[in-house]
Each structure stands twice: as structure tokens, then as C-alpha cells.
Amino acid sequence: MTALKSHTAPTGTAAPASLNAAAQGVPAGLMPPLFAGFMNPQGVILAGKVAETFGMSKGQLAETIGFRDEALYKLARAQAPKTQHRLKEMLEIVSRVCDWAGGAAQAMAWYRAQPIPAFGGRTAEALVKDGQAGALRDYLDHIATGGFA
Description:
By secondary structure, the protein is an all-alpha fold. It has one domain. About 50% of the residues lie in helices and about 0% in strands. Helix 5 crosses helix 6 and helix 5 packs parallel to helix 8. It is globular.
């Protein structure tokens, strides 16, 4: 398996300060490049833009992050802290595997469908839905530093 690359923004392309990375729980300068394109100036992830980018409906995106399919159609629910947190986790995982997978679309396909042997054949999607994004991030970090899958 090819080692994953670090996903810090290249020099000169860091996310604008207006995105308030620290408020999103991501240190300034370390925000994955995928995040910047999906956030408004207040730091809210725009679910519609995420869904459009990955060729999904909002309902399909909601299902992908573990919510009922209508969860992202109401602005208040789409901007709720729990929804934003789950969207952030999904985007972080997809961003981490983008280069390894060959692009954002392929990374999303991996996220949704590729069984991970180290997690009993569960997918990244299933792990994030079950609140195990931290364990998945640790696993991806391990792989990125040359560890075995």
C-alpha cells in the first residue's frame, strides 16, 4: 500500500484566516485543502456544496454521515453542531486519502465502500457513523508514516 501524504496546505495556499480554522478545531495552517472550498466565511461547512462536489443529493450525503436523509435540507439542522462535526470528520478523512486514492471522487468512493481489514472489514463511512473517526485518523496516520495496514 502506498503511504499517504500529509495534507497540510502547500506554501501560499493556506486557508484564509476568515475561515477561522481554530474555531473548527483545526490549527491554523493545518486545515486540509478540501475544507476551504466547502466553508462559508463564518466557518460553516456548506452541505449543499459538499453534496454537489461529490455528485450526491443532500439526502445521500446525510445518509453517508449517518443522519436521516432529510437532515441536510433544513438550514438549522445542516448548521447544527452535531451535523457540522460529522461533516468535518468525513471531509477530514476524505482529504487525508485524496492523493493516495487519486483524487476527491476516488477518495469518497474509498470512504464509502472499501473494507478496512484492520477494522474487521468495516468501511471508513461505517467507522465515522459509529463515532470512531479518531481511531480511523490514527490508523491513517500510522499508514502515512510507513506502518503496515
